Amino acid sequence: KDPCEGNPNISVTTYTSPDGKTAKIYKNTAYDKSWFTNFLNAAVLWHCWVFVQGYVLLYIAWLILPRWISIPFLVLYFVNMAISKAPESGGRLMPLCRLDYNMQIPSGYFQMRTLVEDSVKLDGNSQYMFGLHPHGAHCLGTQAFHLAPSNPLYLLFPRVLEKTHMTCASVMFFLPWVREVLMWYGWIVVSRKNLEKHLAKGSNLGIIVGGEAESILSENGKDKVVLEGRKGFVSLAVRYGVDLVPTYTFHLNETFTFNLNLLAAPRQWIQKNLKVCLPVLWGRWGTPVPHPAPLLVAVGAPVAVPRREQPGGEVDEAVVDRIHAQYMDALSKLFESYKGAAGYGAERKLEVLRAPEADRVHKKTKKES
Fold first, then answer.
1. Given this model, what pLDDT does residue 44 score?
2. For the chain, what is the mean pLDDT?
3. Mean pLDDT score, 252-277
4. Residue 157 and residue 123: Cα distance in Å, rounded?
5. Angle between the N-to-C axes of helices 232-240 and 317-338, in degrees from 0 to 180, rounded to the nearest 10
């Protein structure tokens, strides 16, 4: 039985796609508060995404606190930032982050809905790697994975989400306050070594596949994913026999207004060489508060990956190529099947872009041959 049906705080509707697929769309209705209340909540909770804000707070502390307090505090804080293993382990999960209030912003401000195909059957005893698309300015689709009792996806697959870690670049853990928020929600560093460690111990992972290369290409009114030739996450899945689950967040690129032309060349150089994305964007009324776009997080059926008797070790590149092709096809079909549920027109298409590393590998292979 669907645990969301009959729940007074969750609405459930059935959607049939033009190609005949069926899915259920879930929406938490407990937080449909006034526009002003939702805006205030967004302004308060989303201030943490102003990445310089943490450094501003530390600077204010330096100015107003006596030096015998501020100096030891700042030294200890930055030493902890440098040596802490919590970003690798996800070991600072805070119980308060599991409260229902955490669904206030996605459910109230964004009117977020979660679409789950009827063919999606996730087993709590199995392992999964969730591919999160697109990146956007901030990958807000991760909010569908909150461990809140009123979160529809959590109600459907509690054992799966309980052992799922969202992942992000290590640079995010060097941003004061932002790093604390991420660790409170159990996020971990997306390094290959760290991902292998978590896969080896049975964790599920949420991977923002496009990364900074995709984020800097975010554009209003268009849906782009950097996926062609990006096979690292597939290689990991094959190495550990973990099924891949495609997800797509519709309207994500409407949560901010992007300017692709301003300082485009230096920003692309920084992204390519330093792996740091500096998009030019703004939200409501020119502030960092995002536009209230109606997010729809679609979850597709898992792409089956062959099980291995002994996880780890070398992988067959032919298998990686086959699974990668299946995953790209599954994501494209997920988009096409449910773009109508998000209010997209038939002309809206998903652009699958080639990853930068794919060209580097091609040049290296050509040179060696």
1. 60
2. 88
3. 84
4. 8
5. 110
Q: How far apart are CA 119 and CA 127, in angstroms?
A: 17
> Both tokens of residue 39?
């805006």
∠ CA 314-246-12, rounded to 5°: 150
Residue 290 has pLDDT above 70, yes or no: yes
- Report d(CA 95, CA 93) in Å as an integer: 7
Tell me if 41 sits within 8 A of 137, measured CB to CB. Answer: no
Residue 368 has a pLDDT of 47
Instruction: Enter the pTM of the model.
Output: 0.91
pLDDT confidence band for 43 (50 / 70 / 90): low
C-alpha span between 261 and 280 (Å, rounded): 9
- Give the integer Cα–Cα distance in Å for 40 and 47: 11
For residue 187, give both structure tokens: 């996020």
Supply φ then ψ for residue 141, to 5 degrees: -65, -20
CB 305 within 8 A of CB 238: yes
State the number of CA atoms in the 13 A half-sphere of 108 facing the CB: 22
Helix (H), strand (E), coil (C) string for the chain: CCCCCCCCCEEEEEEECCCCCEEEEEEECCCCCCHHHHHHHHHHHHHHHCCCHHHHHHHHHHHHCCHHHHHHHHHHHHHHHHHCCHHHHCCCCCHHHHCHHHHHHHHHHCCCEEEEECCCCCCCCCCEEEEEECCCCCCHHHHHHCCCCCCHHHHHCHHHHHCEEEEECHHHHHCCCHHHHHHHCCCEECCHHHHHHHHHCCCEEEEECCHHHHHCCCCCCCEEEEEECCCHHHHHHHHHCCEEEEEEEECHHHCCEECCCCCHHHHHHHHHHHCCCCCCEECHHHCCCCCCCCCEEEECCCECCCCCCCCCCCCCHHHHHHHHHHHHHHHHHHHHHHCCCCCCCCCCCEEEEECHHHHHHHHHHHHHC
- Residue 345: Cβ-neighbour burial (10 angstroms; 0-12, 13-18, 19+): exposed
Mean pLDDT of 208-224: 92
Q: Side chain identity at 17, as an amino acid letter?
A: S
In the predicted model, is pLDDT for residue 353 greater than 50? yes
- pLDDT of 145 reads 93
Q: State the average pLDDT over residues 164-179.
A: 89
